[in-house]
Design brief:
Length: 461
Amino acid sequence: MAAMVKPMAKTIYSCQACGYQSPKWLGKCPDCGQWDSFSEEKVADKARGGPLRGISSALKSPAPVPIDEVDVEDQGRLSTRIGELDRVLGGGLVAGSLVLIGGDPGIGKSTLMLQALHGMAADTSKVLYVSGEESVQQLRLRSRRLGAGAPRLLVVSEIDLDAILKMVDTHRPDVLVIDSIQTMYSSDLASAPGSVSQVRDSAMRLMLNAKKSGIPTLLVGHVTKDGAIAGPKLLEHMVDTVLYFEGDRNHVFRILRAVKNRFGSTNEIGVFEMQAGGLIEVPNPSAVFLSERPDNAAGSVVTATMEGTRPILVELQALASSTNLGTARRTVLGLDPQRVALLVAVMEKKLGMHLFGHDIFMNVAGGVKIDEPSVDLAVLAAIASSFLDKPVAGETLVLGEVGLAGEVRAIGNMAARLSEAHKMGFHRCLAPKGSVKRVTVPDQIELIGVDTVERALEALF
């Protein structure tokens, strides 16, 4: 009798950058354009039930119901005891929510998670911190340095997802942290940890577990060299909230920004300062960002940007210097380079400033990134100040959007910006004339309305 031949396992090739799948190996991904990003992965055996076995069976198939008849229990939000983190989350953690936190290596993601869990465990909550990158001894050393030790803070070093879900069922924590999702491994898949299939299926199982148990789950994610969270884009679509931890490791300030939030605003930010004892909240970022501003320096202008509901005063710095090269350089940090190029063109056309033969360097002090057009007039004023070598008065705030015709357009949230400027001791504000008509001016602030860039420079210099 001939021996039975065991069928070969079916394999596919997956792009490790975007998750595109192909039956054969490809040198370049047709979806995202990455070269040499395909790796071979085995297809899960359908007879074994796939990677979601045990969870999908526990979830009963619901029947459609009218939305106004759905019973909702107002359980409130679980505070992390870190005000800046609660602000970005929209007031705290929602029961059963799945939160993804990404950032560069060494930026402070694990430190923030350990401090947040310590704050919750010091209260009445039982929390579980699962690390796939550190041993429990290393976690203890780090917690000792941060002063984050509590009996209700449970730690474990594990990458097997099945074992982790059993721990969750046994200990029933109030909050679960997975650090990081790229290290999780499911034995139902033959691919290595960190592959597209492992990341996708691990996140799916953790999401179903969070929805079934109501346990808020936070996932720490690695980022690629482009700054995006590693793994398939489906990972960001799957979770409820996506937070990015930004900042240069050479700076002490870190900014936590929400780019997706199903339970709150996506414009809020939290500001932290990295110290030896961990991350310290910065309740008044304006004072910190302006603390080292030079006096009467040409090219330095203060403006107010809105981050969600919070106005923040920041310093814009510009340097215009003549160049001997054939093409002048335009180096911009913290601002949109295309927007700065547009404003330089407006200055050359409408103000007669010959900037073609000048290198222009722009920077936002403190490592803040600004993407709203309300700082256009401040950018223009900073470049003009450096070009003319005339400083802008130190107590002057500059606001306004600039159009291609040289007009200064109205902006929103003027009252909040002026209130923050008043608290920081500014006595003079240059703003669009359209916004000045619709705002109540605080005491001790001189509000100057302008409608063109020519009149703005006349008022400044």
